[in-house]
Design brief:
With 71 residues, the protein is mostly helical. The chain has one domain. Helices cover 66% and strands 0% of the residues. The protein is built from 3 helices and no strands. Helix 1 crosses helix 2.
Amino acid sequence: MIYLTARHLMVWMPGNNVCCAKKNAVHLRLGLLLGFFLAVFGITGSMLVFYEEIDNVLNADLRIAQAPKQG
């Protein structure tokens, strides 16, 4: 199992600078956080695009209207 921590990031950095490892750790956390928000925006955006189809599937019985009887 691979754990991605600042200590592991230091291994492949030239010079093994602690400063670079901290920057990489911050970059990793910010990337994961922003990636999560972008995924949420993508999912909710696709729900807005397909609103009518989703509404028809979830509320199929509300979409059927019966005409009043003539007479």
